[in-house]
């Protein structure tokens, strides 16, 4: 009896899907500011060290687990060792939470692509964004729950697109959309970069971005930031790459593919730094302020700084469509990769077909995400959930799982052998050292540091009410672990994919 789990047609399809997952908002709106604030040009050193000593080694680990044990996160972890199944459910739950709010950013970006044409934000983008999200006053706003119609419509559109792609399956949906969207994204972004480079002030922006501050290398926080960026940017250790690798044919070059994915993601990241800082350099000059004053990241960069740039630059509408269109493409291919972690788990658990697994998972997710995030609660929820899902989700599960694999199970030699049977790039002692020592060490330290900073900053985070942070931050993050353990205790039905040969 064979399980009809779906498969990638080949290595190229897999590589595009994996790059589609890796290249996301982290590249466009996170990397440029992280690099700038952590040594500028000098950041390249810790960044490359982090890529080679932790990012790519953990990518290989994900690939080895998914490919050797051929399953969604819970199925693969369970086959690895019966008692490690909870790690898989923990990853599934983190993916579930992230997907809920990631869709909101896509919905905003979709609307802003259209808003770029008539620059609907007028000459005060910050006020417009507040009005548009109905979260006027930002973090200090009282928490309310009213529908924002413009967001509601695009949330529905985003989720419908996700459902269609997921229903089409691993090859015809996930891989096919990445094969189209990723090259399109690169073309659009290159045009955006070239256009931005010719804006007055662009050179000053680049100078600020690349100017090395070698002294920063002595600061441990800079190194932690480099590892944090790499972990997030490569989508490692939260089930995505593991799930994708389970759809690969038995004979595939795992390590060679991993290197392609790792370097493609980082190259795009540098390109994003160039594009964003050219634009910020222009903005600083247009406003007659220092670059330092205009550098932001995340929601502020995309939905407040860029609209300002678009308003001031010649042919701003073009810049707007290219920038927000890029966000949509990069974000969409990441969103489908997170949703797939959940769909694959349910499909394996109940032995479902592709269509029913897609509908059972993504329709409820779409409803919850749309109901929660199309409201005035959207922005505050996104802020808090993102912080905790990253710090106590991705970072924690990565730390715990590497420690378990390396020390409690002592599974690294088996995984190393698997990688060497299925890869052109040989791995050995150094790889095991990276996975067993460097990764857990850096992850553990960053977990401790962020806990200290959250606890010492009091019960409030960014000015949100403490009950809100408690419920959607701490309780959510801890609850995921508890629910994961409970889920791992539920027996697998006889019809599940766990008992089918692949
Ligand atoms: N790797 C993605 C990025 O750089 C991050 C991400 C992917 C987050 C998938 C969540 C889910 O933006
Ligand atoms: Na990335």
UniProtKB/TrEMBL annotation:
GO terms for cellular component: membrane. Keywords: Membrane, Transmembrane, Transmembrane helix, Transport. The chain crosses the membrane at residues 13-32, 44-65, 86-109, 147-168, 180-203, 223-247, 259-284, 317-346, 358-380, 392-409, 430-455, 467-490. The keyword Ion transport does not apply. Pfam families: SNF (PF00209). It is a multi-pass membrane protein. InterPro entries: Na/ntran_symport (IPR000175), SNS_sf (IPR037272). The keyword Cell inner membrane does not apply. It is found in: Membrane. It comes from the Bacteria. PANTHER family: TRANSPORTER. NCBIfam families: Na_transp. This is Sodium-dependent transporter. It comes from Brachybacterium ginsengisoli.
